[in-house]
Design a protein that fits this description.
- By secondary structure, the chain is of the alpha/beta class.
- It folds into two domains: 309 residues, TIM Barrel (Alpha-Beta Barrel), CATH 3.20.20.300; 151 residues, Rossmann fold, CATH 3.40.50.1700.
- It has 19 helices and 14 strands.
- It has an eight-stranded parallel β-sheet with strand order 7-6-5-4-3-2-1-8.
- Helix 7 links the parallel strand 4 and strand 5.
- The relative contact order is 0.12.
Length: 519
């Protein structure tokens, strides 16, 4: 059965045109002009927007140009990675940047996930974008996960499932087609599939009880897609292949056992996790034969990939995949007031502990020094953090540091901290593989005999590195709204509401967090 949300086979198309329409290259305006004839002739009708490269005006112009090229024919489908949070987000397009999935998980309210998805979808739809590669349905079971981490809603399968299902409905109601990812679950890995091939070394029973739960919930909704993971799962019969290239996973498990009848999208076939010993064209052929219907080929040569498919894949399989391609748009039947990122942030920011009753922290008692680790990529967010600090603490001193502080930077931070009355230091770690120099500096700051507030400003998984931290605030991502909410919490303008959606250790279980100040 083919879902009605997907297009049916079009009469009069050649097999070559059908094969071309199974490809989704990464595109921008230059790509469109270079491949204008391919698009006009119907050999390319889907593209993933180059990440974080377009303004809203440029996107509208690109949409208009594509519509001119396709004329009265089938509309060119635009897709985008826009998960929310600090990563995999279109920050340059003027879109609302919400706190990420783990922040949403910290609110405990799936309705907020639905509202955020709805608002994002309405903005994407207004720009002519029809597909969003979200939400992330991975259960982040491994704290050392180098690629999922705060992109997940949490580490409890049932909770993640509720948030994923809510987000799926929200995206559809806002007018875009969601693609849940990364099947059959990328949450229990300690390798980044962009750089290598992770192996999931656990039983089929455990995978069904944990990793597949959110996907099962999402699949109850018609008209969605699913993105594959470049992970090897021996217990599911993948052998030496990643799931993207495994018929046992994509046909037997996904289609036959789980009953999914929508579009199966490969993750990027330019990632190292799928390229070991094979070219992008060869990976595309294997992925299509295994059960993928739409192939993300990045910047690779679309004509070369198309020729490889025509030479190696059966006509029947090409037509089957073509019939499942995305067509039209999600219904978009729900309208409400757009959600503000601050609303999520204020519900999610977590006061994990405050042993000395330091919060709310007033401006009295000497100079307050804020030490902020941040990368150049997040300059806009760092500026918002700085402005929020100045609004609450006009006399405060602010010191920005590289995530890998030099000896000179570390020495200056320690010198100024010894002179300050109070110190607030924020970390910039991803998971449980911190920057060693940053870790050492924060540990030394926490040993100072003065009030120190520790703000885990990216991933909460760094908290166990700092058991001496008496006051700990969690933001779950370096976003403007989350950082502003953290400052307001420290100042006592808002009360703590968030709860930790993952377990950090036996002493810091899921659900930890204070609901009020101790003062």
């Amino acid at each position: 059965m083919i879902s009605p949300a997907f297009a049916s086979a079009s009469p009069g198309l050649t097999l070559e045109q059908m094969a071309g329409r199974l490809l989704m290259p990464t595109i921008d305006a230059a790509f469109v002009e270079k491949h204008a004839e391919e698009i006009r002739a119907g050999y390319l009708l889907a593209g993933m927007l180059a990440w974080d490269k377009h303004s809203a005006g440029e996107l509208k112009a690109l949409r208009k140009r594509l519509d001119v090229l396709t004329g009265d024919g089938e509309r060119f489908v635009l897709a985008v990675d826009h998960e929310g949070g600090p990563l995999f987000t279109q920050r340059t397009a003027g879109l609302t940047i919400f706190p990420g999935n783990m922040a949403l998980g910290a609110t405990g309210d799936p309705d907020l996930a639905a509202q955020a998805a709805r608002t994002s979808a309405a903005e994407l739809s207004a720009l002519g974008i029809g597909i969003v590669f979200a939400p992330v349905a991975d259960v982040n079971s491994d704290p050392s996960n180098p690629i999922i981490s705060i992109r997940a809603f949490g580490d409890d399968p049932a909770t993640v499932s509720r948030f994923v299902s809510a987000a799926v409905r929200g995206y559809q109601q806002g007018g875009v087609i969601p693609v849940v990812k990364h099947f059959p679950g990328h949450g229990d890995t300690d390798t980044d599939s962009h750089t290598g091939l992770p192996v999931i070394d656990k039983s089929s029973m455990a995978i069904h009880a944990i990793d597949l739960v959110p996907f099962r919930g999402a699949f109850k909704v018609e008209g969605i897609g699913v993105m594959t993971a470049h992970i090897r799962v021996p217990a599911l019969g993948s052998g030496t292949n990643p799931a993207t290239l495994s018929a046992a996973i994509l046909r037997k498990l996904l289609r036959e056992e789980m009953g999914f009848n929508g579009v199966v999208v490969s993750d990027s076939l330019e990632m190292k996790g799928v390229l070991k010993g094979r070219s992008v064209a060869a990976a595309a052929v294997q992925a299509l034969q295994a059960g993928c219907d739409l192939l993300l080929i990045g910047r690779s040569d679309s004509q070369e990939v198309r020729r490889a498919i025509l030479a190696a894949v059966s006509e029947e399989r090409i037509k089957e995949a073509y019939q499942r391609r995305f067509g039209g748009r999600a219904p978009g039947f729900f309208e409400d007031e757009p959600l503000e990122p601050a609303h999520i942030a204020e519900r999610s920011v977590t006061l994990l502990r405050d042993r000395g009753g330091l919060l709310p922290m007033k401006g009295r008692g000497g100079t307050t020094l804020f030490i902020i680790h941040r990368s150049k990529r997040f300059a806009i967010e760092a500026e918002a953090f700085e402005n929020a600090i100045k609004a609450q603490y006009p006399a405060a001193e602010i010191l920005f540091l590289n995530p890998k502080p030099s000896p000179k930077e570390a020495s200056e931070a320690l010198r100024r901290s010894r002179l300050a009355g109070k110190v607030v230091v924020s970390s910039y770690h991803w998971g449980r593989k911190p920057f060693p120099k940053q870790k050492r500096l924060i540990q030394r700051l926490l040993q100072l005999k003065k009030p120190v507030v520790f703000v885990s400003a990216m991933s909460p998984y760094d908290v166990p590195f700092y058991p001496e931290a008496k006051t700990v605030v969690l933001t779950y991502g370096f976003t403007k709204a989350a950082l502003q909410a953290a400052v307001r919490l420290i100042a006592g303008e808002i009360r703590p509401k968030g709860r930790l959606p993952v377990s950090l250790s036996s002493r810091i279980p899921r659900g930890s967090g204070l609901g009020a100040f101790r003062q």
